Amino acid sequence: MSKSDAMIEFRDVHKYYGDYHALRGITATIRPGEFFSLLGPSGCGKTTLLRTIAGFEDISSGAVLVDGRDMAGVPANKRPTNMVFQSYAIFPHLSVEENVGFGLRRDPRSKEEKARAVGEALEMVGLKGYGKRAAHALSGGQRQRVALARALILKPKVLLLDEPLSALDKKMREQMQMELIKLQRQVGITFILVTHDQEEALVMSDRIAVMFEGEIAQLADPETLYRRPNSRKVADFIGTMNFLPAKVLEEGPEAVEIEAAGFGRIHVEASQVMGKTTPEGATVGFRPETLTILYDGNAATDRESMGTIDEVVYFGDMTYYDVRIDGTDAPVRISMRNVFGRPVLDIGARARVGWSPGALVLFR
Q: How far is the C-alpha of 114 from the C-alpha of 101, rounded, in Å?
């Protein structure tokens, strides 16, 4: 791979802490100008992997390359990267402009040039006019912006984000997600985000690496991860996924015929099959929004099953139903948008459920 094809390259990266194998043969590339996320549960290795890029962690074997250069032996302060920490690491005794300009202390530029760079960085993150304010007087969202400005003022090739939004409330978190997306497009450099929040990763990323137990389980764009997860474990981790037991009846190079509980016999295209199928023990997965409750007068666009509503959860714009489809042992989740005039059904009501075979994923 040429230098222009990858900003970050991991080559069979392993990391041990004593006998604990934290990173297990990570091989992946991150493209220039990409918003990339490392997603996974606590302890999966995502922060450790991020820190190997920054130079805060040495690797046990393999190689980490940044912009085509092997980082072996390169200290953190000599790498073309900068990091925004979960805690922001803002100096409370300094003003906003002093915090942002902290990394320029040894920069050979004049005082006026440094001041101009600080002003540009503050304007970039929406804090124009806040330079003289005391850092301890800022809100959580403002402190996060200061941390971003301080990191970006040094013009790194890669900005590393270690769960920077986790301390914010829901509304501010959603606002900052949008601002980070716009900021990344504006500066055009590679952003690498560590998060355990699936929704955050789906919203913000060009591509996502889902990690479990020190390994990358799947690396893909958000839509592929959501629509075509490559394993039941990834499917169960990304959003909400329903699962029903299935039996493989016939298998060919282009399609598989299965019998799924509650759905009957189904023709599944090869692109919907994840892993090698076996005659017993297969599972079909599908997202809540791919099923629909059919009201009186509505005809199924494809297939239809009957079920009984076990639970109703009203969220204002959406209602979530747990429906026990006839012939199944456990209910499935169905999400319905609350458009004007559509009634919310009661627990115990019988329901017609429309679905399409094309929305299913078959897991071995």
A: 7
